[in-house]
Amino acid sequence: MTDTLKKIALITGANKGIGFEVARQIGRTGATILLGARNTPAGEKAAAVLASQGLTVRFIAIDVADPDSVAAAAAAITTEFGHLDILVNNAGITDPADGPAPTARLDAVERIWRTNFLGALAVTQAMLPLLRKAASARIVNVSSGLGSLAQNGDPNYSSAATKLIGYSASKVALNMLTVQLAYLLRDTAIKVNSADPGYTATDLNGHRGPQTIPEGAAEAIRLALLPDDSPTGTYSDSKGIVPW
Ligand code: NAP
User: What is the rounded distance in angstroms from the CA atom of residue 188 to the CA atom of residue 205?
Assistant: First the structure.
């Protein structure tokens, strides 16, 4: 049995899309997958699919926007496993009432933030004591290229016309979580990095993205499995570093 075989990995929003593929591929390394989902039937079904592929997987009920649900998930993992090696903050939403700053509906912006930023922050806070107990832990925040201030400020950026104030700002805030947490944990064995999946065909965007789900999952998987001599506090896609 190698070290990898003993790793425990929690992926939020893992019942479908990028999160499901991240769970599948981390599971294929021998890690125990805690497949997080807010919808119990969908989560159990997804876990059963991975189990049928020979992976070690457990469904964990976790609605990242519900503090009680997050606390219950942390308590369950504490009781059953006592530590956590990998946390992938993947759960995320868009909202049809989001849009450019002059017209985006504030209730939509708030909904997005509750999941994409506050949700990831709440899960990270709840799981940190478990991550600190791991020999070498990884936190991956699934961000977006739309969360890059530098790219948003560049009129030649390929997605310059996509101005979703709620979604994009939630990913900027998520990137701030990466930067600040990486600094605070710099003397520990926990690495914190942001992954930009790239525009990927999933339910999130009506399957309009040109990338496949395995392509979109690749960077988060790489960051979740980083060796110990790797950097922390970075922001990257599958082609390399993304400017903050
Ligand atoms: P997706 O197929 O819509 O999957 C999103 C997942 O998040 C679903 O499992 C969803 O659960 C879950 N989720 C939403 N709200 C949740 C909550 N409150 N608690 C727990 N789970 C919740 O979208 P995706 O494209 O795979 O997105 C995954 C991540 O990649 C997101 O953070 C997204 O922002 C990011 N991303 C995607 C793209 C892209 O082009 N697809 C590009 C850049 C970044 P339900 O099934 O219950 O709704």
Answer: 37
